[in-house]
Amino acid sequence: MDNKTKELIAIGSSMATNCMPCLEFHIGKAKSHGASMKELIIASKIGIHVKAGAAEKMESYASKIIQGFSEEEVEDICNCD
C-alpha cells in the first residue's frame, strides 16, 4: 500500500475518532504524498459516515438494553444540544 493511501485511511480514522491533532497531521502528510483536495474530502466524508453508522448502532443497542430509553428523555436530562 502506498503512503498516500495510508494517510487517506488515517484521515478517515481521525474523523471517525474525533482526533483533531491526528487529522491535521495526516492531512499534511497526505498532501506531501500528492493527495488532491478531492481525495482529502472523500477520506474525511468516509470517516464521518463510519462515525455516524457507529453512533446509530450504539443508540439502537442502548434502546434495547435500557428500558424506557428515548432521545427525548436524554435531551431533557443533559441539555447537550
Automatic annotation (TrEMBL):
Record key words, sorted: Oxidoreductase, Peroxidase
Highest rank taxon of the organism: Bacteria
Residue ranges of domain Carboxymuconolactone decarboxylase-like in the record: 2-52
NCBIfam families, per database record: ahpD_dom
Protein name, entry field: Alkylhydroperoxidase
Cited SUPFAM superfamilies: AhpD-like
Organism the protein comes from: Neptunomonas japonica JAMM 1380
MF (Gene Ontology): peroxiredoxin activity
